[in-house]
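Shipment paperwork, digital attachment
Item: protein structure file
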Amino acid sequence: MTTDSITAPPRDSIAKADGRTIQRIARAGGYTGPDDGVPGPNTWTGLQQVAKGYAYAGHLDGAPGPATWDALQRLAAKGGYTGPNDGVMGPNSWKGVQTVLRWFGYAGPVDGVPGPATNRALQSLGSLGGYPGPYDGVLGTQSWIGVQTVLTGAGYAGPTDGAPGPETWKAVQRIARRGGYTGPIDGVPGPNTYAGLATLIHRIDPI
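Attachment content:
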């Protein structure tokens, strides 16, 4: 995938297909609205949260420890978890995670007991962080590195305000690199940025 054309369409006139891709990625940041292809403030807030991450402060080592679990609890809060971020995953933490993972292919019960279906959905989420493997429900080092990368974010340093600006778009381009985008991180998305996002999201949900 090459760089974007300098004649890219304005950032506020996103094609519906591209808008739906943005919305599907934004689900990892708590967006729960429709995939209607018309991103609004809630979509952008979710996308900014994906870019900002969930306060993961550990290493991308593929070995989940307290920092990973603490960040996963922050993600679980998007699914209704109201407990402490103490790095100890209990049933209520997992129920929150399972609720969020419904947007990533999880169809099992929200029972707070992680199993193969929960793990497959975590691998789907990990694709946003570069996990290249199968969704086989066996969480290995590469699966966890993908999840940890999502929890870390994509370098977004701006506010989570629901208003996309250059820093939001730069983070979008960083996310797009996980789908093959090789152009500049210049905050000006074009067809190749969206092609990278579409490739990535197709891996997550091939519909």
